[in-house]
Amino acid sequence: MGFRTGVIFAASTFDTPLLFTKFTEEQVIRAENFYVSIYNAPRGIPSCLHGVIGLGIIGIASKLHRWTETDLYFGLGSMILFVGATIMYIAVIWPNLRALANPTEAGYIVKAVFETELERNSNSFPPLTFHERLSVVQVVSATNIIIAALLFGVLLLQIGQWYVDRQHLNELNKRRNEQIAKLEQQRTQETRKTK
C-alpha cells in the first residue's frame, strides 16, 4: 500500500490545482506529461505498483482467513475499500492513461472517459483536442482523490481494529490477573485454616 500511496501523493501535486483551484494550460500540460511518463515508465515501475496492489489484497484476505469478531467490522470493511480502490484504478485510471499516451489510437480512446463536443467517426480519428485531454486528466485526477480517500479509510479501519484488539487483550489480561489474585487469596485462606 505504501508504494501506491506514494504515487498518489506525488500525483496530488498535479491533481489538486486541476480540481480545486483555477488552473492554467501549463498546469494541464504538466499533469498530462506526468501521467504519460507514469504510463510509459519502464516495465518495473508498473509491475511494482501492480505487485503492491496484489500484496495488499492478499494481506487483507489473509487477515480475514483467521477471522476474528473485529474482522467482521474492520477487516471486511478494509477489504471492500481496498478492492474498490483497485477496481477504480483498473477501470478508470489505466484506460485513461492509455488514451493520454496514445491519443490517435481509436481502441484506447473509445475506452477512455472524457467530455467531447463531437461524436467521433471511426474512419477519421484525429488526436484528442486540448479540451478532451483536459477532461481525461481531470477524470484521472478525481479518481486519484477518490482512491486516496478509500486508502485513508482502509488505514483508519486498520488502526481502529488494532485499537479494539488491544483494548480486548488488555481486558482479558485484567480479568486473568483478577482471577489469579482471587485464587491466591483462596489458597492463603485455606492454608491458614489448615494450620
Automatic annotation (TrEMBL):
Residue ranges that the Swiss-Prot or TrEMBL entry lists as coiled coil:
166-193
One Gene Ontology term, aspect cellular component: endoplasmic reticulum membrane
Q: Which residues cross the membrane?
A: 73-94, 136-157
* Keyword Transmembrane helix part of the UniProt annotation: yes
- Tell me, what is one Gene Ontology molecular-function annotation carried by this entry? unfolded protein binding
Q: What does the UniProt keyword field contain?
A: Coiled coil, Membrane, Transmembrane, Transmembrane helix
Give the GO biological process terms: endoplasmic reticulum to Golgi vesicle-mediated transport
What is the protein's name according to its record? Protein csh3
Naturally occurring in which organism (per UniProt) = Malassezia cuniculi
